[in-house]
Amino acid sequence: MNQEASSEKSTGSPKWATEPFHRFLDQSERLGHVVQLSVRGIFGLQGIPIIFELLAERGVKVDTDEHKQQQRLAMAQKDVDLAQREIDSDFPIVYANAMVALWSFLESMIRATLVAWLKNDPSAWQADAIAKLRVRLGEYERLAQDERYYYVAEILESETAAGLRNGVERFEVILKPFGLDGSVPGRLRQDMFEFGQVRNAIVHRGGHADRKLTGSCPWLNFKVGDELPIRREHFDRYSNAAHYYVLLLLCRVIEHFDKDVPEQRQAVFAKYGAD
């Protein structure tokens, strides 16, 4: 381990180990703000035609050209009709796209964590799962130094078949070689499993249930071909699950550097119950 990391270890978790978590938190907070602004903006469209009409009643024209005035009013009314449809269905497009983005942020955070370990902790390369990776030396040597870490992380994901696993298992299997895997409460595990399955249906089936989703999550009571009724309650539940799972991972990282955080870890298990 380099000198900076070694000195940081004696005083707590090094910055390189926690940086992916800071980035995830920043991204997820911005996503939440964008979702809120989108919802508020759609609600706000309802008042535009009323403003047009009130001004017209008082002889005030938004546009001096009468034809353009009517076009703008018609467009505003059309926007209101579309907005009302989203309001009535609880903004499924907004929340569905937010769920896809949040899952991507989570995947990126996990990969960045692997890269950070490979880059800063020489002992990570001694793990059997890493030492036995089938690296193509020609490809590896052509890459810039930083890209080599990502390349190795991608090989690890491929050889552990992480992409074929579901829920937290796809993350736990690639965290294990670094000693960052561990226990996950059963209900949190189920929420993350459901999150991943619904996300896949949004991305690969255009937001409709397929056999994989109906078979793996029967408690959702979907039939093949059903349009997924994505609403705020779904986004909130999956977002909570993702953040509590990230908190659990952060506890593992901090504990790796010899600092116990029992209260924070217990908070996750208290929220989701014991295994």
| Backbone CA Rg | 24 Å
Oligomer: single chain
How many beta-strand runs?
0
Most strands sheet: none
What overall geometry do the principal axes of the alpha carbons give?
elongated
The percent of residues in helical segments reads 55-70%
Helical/strand content category: mainly alpha
**Unreliable runs, pLDDT <50, ≥5 residues?**
1-11
Count of separate DSSP helical elements: 13
Mean pLDDT: 89
Strand content: under 5%
What is the end-to-end distance? 35 Å
Can you write the helix and strand succession as a string? Answer: HHHHHHHHHHHHH
Comma- or semicolon-separated keywords:
0% strand; 13 helices; mainly alpha; 275 residues
Topology diagram in text:
Elements: H1 3-9, H2 15-44, H3 48-57, H4 66-88, H5 92-120, H6 128-131, H7 137-142, H8 145-159, H9 169-175, H10 186-204, H11 211-216, H12 232-256, H13 262-272
Q: What does the model show?
A:
This protein has 275 residues and is mainly α. It has a domain of 182 residues. It contains 13 helices and no strands. α2 runs antiparallel to α5. The chain is elongated, with a radius of gyration of 24 Å. The relative contact order is 0.12.
In short:
By secondary structure, the protein is mainly α.
